[in-house]
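Researcher: Structure prediction, please.
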Amino acid sequence: MVDFRFDIKPLFCQPIIKVTSNLLPHTFRGDRRQSLDATAKMSEIIDSLGLLSAKAQKLTKPVTTAQRLRSSENQVVYILADVDKRVVLGLLKVGTKDLYLFDEFGQTRKVPNAPSILDFYIHESYQRSGLGKELFETMLSNEDWKPIKCSVDRPSDKLLGFLKKHYGLVRTIPQANNFVLYEGFFDDKQQPENHDQNQNHQIYRKKQQQSNGTAGMHLTNSTHLS
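Model: Predicted structure follows.
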C-alpha cells in the first residue's frame, strides 16, 4: 500500500476513481484553488504508483506518469484506494489506439480506436485478495468494454493468468508488435480467398499454437498485476 503526506480521503469519495487528462477525480467538485490543489495531489499519487509498477516490472522508466496522462486525451487511469485506511492500493491505465493487427488468418487489419490495456498494478501486500478483479470489472463497466475485445500491451505472465482465470481467455492471435489479443477480437472473420492466403493462415495457426503452449514466456517489459 502507498500512503502520502496529505489526506487522500477528499480525493476518494469512493474506493475507485477515474482520472483523465485533467488529472482530477471524476467525482471532484470544487473551485479553481481546490482544483489546483487536487491536481497536484493526484499527480503525486499517479507518479508514485507508476514508479512502483515500473519497479515491479524491472523497467527503466514508468509506463504511467501524470505528465503522460495530461497529454493523452484518449487515456484513462483508474485508481483503487482503501479509503478507511487512507492508502492507495493500485492502478489500471487504459486507452484507445490505432493499431495494425493480424487477424486469425494472418491478414493485416487496421483497427482504429482499439481498446487497450496499458498498465495494471496492485500493491504486493494486497495481491490475491480480489481487488484486481474489482478494479478491472469497474473499468469494463465504465468503458463498456468486453475483455475479449481488448488488446493488451506487453502483458506479464500474471496478467495472462488473470485473464485466463477470470475471463477464460487463452487462445491468442500472434502479432508482430508487443500487443496481445485473443481469438474473438475480430467480429468479422474474413476467410482467405486463395491458396497463398490459406498457407498464410496455416502458418499463423502453427505460431498461435506455439504461443499458447509457451503461455506468453516470450513477452518482455510486461505489466504487473495481482
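Model: Confidence is low (pLDDT under 50) at residues 191-198, 212-224.
Researcher: Thanks, that helps.
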